[in-house]
Amino acid sequence: MAVTIKSAREIDLMRESGRLLAIVHDELGKAICPGMSTLDIDKMGEKLIRSFGCVPNFLHYNGYPASICVSVNEEVVHGIPRADRILQEGDIVSLDAGLIYKGYHSDAARTYAVGKVSKEAADLITVTKQSFFEGIKMAKAGYHLYDISNAIAAYVTSYGYGIVKDLVGHGIGTKLHEAPQIPNFAQKRKGLRLQPGMTLAVEPMINMGTGDVVWLDDDWTVVTADGAYSAHYENTILITDGEPEILTLPS
Ligand code: MF3
Ligand code: CO
Question: What is the secondary structure of the chain as a DSSP string?
Fold first, then answer.
């Protein structure tokens, strides 16, 4: 599948989709606290998304049973919300959320500390977030796709963390997952040339230990193979003539 270039009209719709998702994340982030269940987070997120007249794009996607992916500690991504999974002080929790506004998808993820966490856990969250910003320094017209991958990888590797290779970022638009795939690990090739109007979900998934992951029996929850903590940070971005526009952060 070819990479789609969005028209001015589509870009406006993507912007609104992203703006609303940024609000969802901000509200969820404020709510996170010890004692909350991962299902509480899902219900709150779904309610907010629907309050905007939008649809949660993860719900029923390939059979995924919830609106928000809630992944705790060694869970990397796609954790399924549960009433009996209660957040505790010292946990880290990754929230991955997306929505559809007038047919246009947005997708973003954040990792939060629950109460006070270890310095090691806090550092992992900080470096994972910063790796996204290092990556998108290369997200400019005329650069190549894998410049983003290589920038993320160089930054993360300098801290000794493991990069998840089994899951990647992606193009996004009228579908949640469009071409191209966007690896977060070093690439030998250049990849496609970035052009204004491309919308991409850049999403480093970074482990404190090795990058190896396994799937739980639910066939969704991805966990680190060594049981070490993992963090995730994602935004939907727009390639422009200049600096990339981050669509899923508050403006
Ligand atoms: N944010 C995830 C991604 O980038 C989507 C979650 S997959 C779902 O691919 F099935 F849960 F929707
Ligand atoms: Co994504």
Answer: -PPP---HHHHHHHHHHHHHHHHHHHHHHHH--TT-BHHHHHHHHHHHHHHTT-EESSTTGGG--SSEEEEETTEEE-PPP-TT-B--TT-EEEEEEEEEETTEEEEEEEEEE-SS--HHHHHHHHHHHHHHHHHHTT-STTSBHHHHHHHHHHHHHTTTPEEP-SS-EEE-SSSSSEEEEE-SS--SS--PBP-TT-EEEE--EEESS-S-EEE-TTSS-EEETT---EEE-BEEEE--SSSPEETTS--
